[in-house]
Amino acid sequence: MKRNLIIALVLVTTVLSACKKYLDIKPYGKTIPKTAEEFVALLHSMLNNIDYGGDNLILGSANSLLNLECYADNLDASITNYPAGNSLPIYVGANINNKQKDYEDLYQRIRDCNIVINNLKTDNTELDKNVLGTAYAIRAVCYFQLMRQFCEPYNAQKGEQLGLPIVTDFDMEARPLRSTLKQTMNFIERDFKKAVDFKVKEEVYRFTEDVTQAHLARFYFWAKEWDKATPIAEALLGKYPMQEGTAYTEMLQARNAKKGNVLMRSFLFSGTTDISYNSAMSIIKARPVSKGFIDLFVEKERDVRFNLMMDKKRQHTKNLMANIRTDEMCLMLAESYAHQGNSGKALDYLNLLRAKRITGYTPLTATTLPAVDNSALVQEDAMGKPLTPLMQAILNERRKEFYGEGDRWFELKRNGSPTFWVAKDGLKYITEPYLYTFPIPRTDVELIDGLVQNPGYTF
């Protein structure tokens, strides 16, 4: 059922300066909303954008997933079909300036959440809890997305790493510098925990308690806190078992429905974004699936994903749907246990997922795991260690499972940020390690004394 928007009785008018407009929030000639009913519209505007597939930042849209796939190596950019593929980025560097706009837009969403969190005078009603729980969850996800894109992966061996400017209220005079990455991570964790504590149950708010727990598990996984990710992932996987066969295919190919063990998804409703969705599904066919990706499907036709994801011409066929589902929890568990030295449990979860995808599946054992492919792009794990047969099998399974869902780009970043290149018109376009971490907006670096740009960028 479509969300019925509650129109705010009082709107917030903002005064924007030349720089940092996404942080500059001060009511001007208007009164800030005070009741939950008045704050709902700020949140529902963002949630509606997710529901109609227009959100590129919080969960993702067909267009944002298309771009992420183009940055990575699941598609073969060197044999793109032109002119059909002219609008596809040849590599991440082609879109790097656009990422500065994403940075600003994510902070604008954080701004709206801050307005709710700082100004809602709660009476501890269910509506108050739903509104605050949703605001904390969205703010945490926005900071998580900023961290994944604009900070290096956390590495305790590096000492202090650059984090994000942490903004928790609105102040036109404030120009916060970057916190450390550890401070950023601590802030995101606190926000997620606060959101979970509100125990949002109503589906209309999308970030229910279970959905927020799933995002928290994602955060812990990215932060390499394997022991914190595992209990959450196990609880969710137990509550929402994985689908298989026809039910799995129907779940992923549903155009406007949340099915199976999908906890949250984009594009629930048709609307004006149908055009952009159809365009993305058409344009992606101009870039064939890479041979390296196809070769991962050793079982070929026995693997339900093989024909789901591509046709015989190597053209993409899988639905471009941003989502969070418990299949991810299963593979997070496999990898987390592997990092903790529990190869038995890691194999159990790896086999659990493969059994749901491959007809006549025979479980892998420590002695039957394929040898490490030394020609593969990824050669080290998230901890910087050389891949073992078990870890490579887990990473390969994740690559197959989440193809077309924008996952591979972040997997490359998380596992060594390897250098690779593609060719066009006799030129090489090289994805260097620094390009996995996007630049802070140039105007901020120039105008805010002491704000440090990410390594590799001279502007």
From TrEMBL:
Cell compartment(s), UniProt: Cell outer membrane
Q: Which PROSITE patterns match?
A: PROKAR_LIPOPROTEIN
Q: Name one Pfam family in it.
A: SusD-like_3
Q: Does the keyword Hydrolase apply?
A: no
Q: Which family does it belong to?
A: Belongs to the SusD family.
InterPro entries from the UniProt entry: SusD-like_N, SusD_RagB_dom, TPR-like_helical_dom_sf
The name this protein carries in UniProt is RagB/SusD family nutrient uptake outer membrane protein
Q: State whether keyword NAD applies.
A: no
Residue ranges occupied by any RagB/SusD domain in the UniProt entry: 312-457
Q: Which UniProt keywords apply?
A: Cell outer membrane, Membrane, Signal
Q: Which domain of life is it from?
A: Bacteria
Species: Chitinophaga defluvii
